[in-house]
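Reading group handout, session on sequence-to-structure problems. Before we discuss, look at one worked example. The prompt was deliberately terse, the way you'd type it at a terminal:

> structure Copper transport protein

The input record follows.
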Amino acid sequence: MMHMTFYWSRQVTLLFSSWRTDSWPSYALTLLACVLASVFYQYLEHVRYRVRRSRKPAGEPLLSQPNRAAGKWSAKKIAGGLLFGLSSGLGYLLMLAVMSFNGGVFLAIVLGLTIGFLWLRSEDEDEIAGVNSTCACA
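And the output record:
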């Protein structure tokens, strides 16, 4: 039976019909896997942000137009695309896991996303805030 409202139970089927929990140890391992997958998702987003924000070569103006012919298939674009695909796929799997409507799975994923953000990505927000705070906007 597929639940359509949140429920609290150690018995959950997650993502695949073969991934079922029926005991507390298997449920705990499933919740741990959800936390780790969520932290890994934040890690992928952090790496993708770093690749996208990597510095331009010295002497190149900040707002210069990119050379479209030379940079069409650059290593940076390919790496960014692969990271985006991996991150998107994992994000959708996390969303589907939340759609199991199991309260523990939901809390584990939110906990993992929070840990990952605080550990890896909060400095990204600080950098953005630092740039915005130095802006002399009137």
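Points for discussion. First: The chain has three helices and two strands. Second: The chain has a mean pLDDT of 84.
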